[in-house]
Amino acid sequence: MLGRVAACAAVLFVWPICTRTSDGDGALPLAEIVMVANQAQTIADGRHDAEAEKQPQLPQESAALAAPGALVRAAEPSAPIAFHNASAVETEPFGLDAEPVMDGEILAKWDGVESQIEEENQVLARCGDGNSWCPWAARRFLSIVNDGQARNGRARVGVINRGINLSIVPTTDLVQWGVADHWSTPLETFTTQRGDCEDYAIAKYVALRAAGVPQQDVRLIVVREDAERENHAVVAVRLAGEWLILDNRWLALVRDREMSRATPLYELDGNGVRRFVDPAPLAKLQQARSGSAEWRSGS
Questions:
Q1: Residue among 192, 285, 187, 236 at smallest CA distance from 84
Q2: For residue 8, pLDDT beyond 70
Q3: How much is the pLDDT for 285?
Q4: pLDDT band at 287 (very low <50, low <70, confident <90, very high)
Q5: Main-chain phi, psi angles of 115, to 5 degrees
Q6: Nearby residues of 86 by Cβ (< 8 Å), 6 or more positions away
Q7: How far is it, in rounded angstroms, from Cα 21 to Cα 23?
């Protein structure tokens, strides 16, 4: 999906990303994505799918939507939460150093998205004053934030990952927008209920921040999937000193060191874009860490 990406040296690369989606442009890498596609419309219609019934602790969406004030409180940081253990913190995902990207297309795209996110935050804030009309996409997005806000630690991250995965039908930018590369903000994605990997990742990044995850503990990550020779966007969250990976292709939370067959490229957050220094395929990084388990994408 990230069409042309620029490194610090301002050398442009053309990288297809997220091309294997359910719209017929390619085979899906995991069976889970089929479940996501099948269940997304059910959730969008306001009905609870069978998976949601298995988790009775999940607040009913209708209750969240009936209390606009609660939604705005969900978008505000909660009391401090121990999302990382200061005695055993991995500074960056995958244990790699990163350096700032000062120019190039990826920085321009991220700057544009962040500006639009600020505008959308004003819409989300108005949804809680009780006097303003609130778009359905904003109410649905904030209901997921609210569900996450009601939990702590791994449960918070898992509820947000699951809620966003099941709310979006995987669709390429070419099919949805008629262009090779389009980065959507959360409300744009929730309006169309369609998107590709970076659209899922942007929505999760914003939702996690709104639910109270500290800025220093969440990143949008771009990796190069070596076998498929394409880029893929995910989100990394630091919890108990370790980084967990949130992927749109499955519901499980995976430790960064349990990934394989991919090379970390960039991390994006409120401080801009950084390029991982001397990245190696994750399979090689694993070999240098004792007790690591191999993760397979299933593609």
A1: 236
A2: no
A3: 57
A4: low
A5: -65, -40
A6: 241
A7: 6
Q: What is the mean pLDDT of the chain?
A: 75
Residue 14 buriedness (CB in 10 A; 0-12 / 13-18 / 19+) = exposed
Q: What is the pLDDT of residues 16-65, one digit of tens each?
A: 567 555 444 433 333 343 344 444 444 444 443 444 344 434 333 333 33
Give 6 or 212, the one with higher predicted confidence: 212
- All structural domains of the chain, each given as residue ranges with its CATH number in brackets, are 4-287 (3.10.620.30)
- What is the rounded radius of gyration, in angstroms, for the C-alpha atoms of the chain? 18
> Phi and psi at residue 156, in whole multiples of 5°?
-60, -50
CA atoms of 232 and 37, how far apart (whole Å): 18
- The count of residues in the chain is 299
Contact 179, 196 (CB under 8 A): no
CA atoms within 13 A on the CB side of 271: 13
Question: Phi, psi (5° rounding) for residue 269?
Answer: -160, -165
Whole-number pLDDT of residue 98? 94
Residues 6 or more apart whose Cβ sits within 8 Å of residue 60: 48
Are the C-beta atoms of 281 and 94 separated by less than 8 Å?
A: no
Name the H helices within 179-221. Answer: 186-192, 197-210
Query: In terms of Cα–Cα distance, which of 212, 61, 24 is closest to 141?
Result: 61
d(CA 118, CA 181): 21
Answer whether 211's CB lies under 8 Å from 204's CB. no
Rounded Cα–Cα distance for residues 254 and 265 (Å): 18
Q: Tell me the pairing of strands 169-170 and 98-100.
A: unpaired
Q: Could you tell me which residues come within 8 angstroms of residue 284 by beta carbon, excluding any fewer than 6 positions away?
A: none
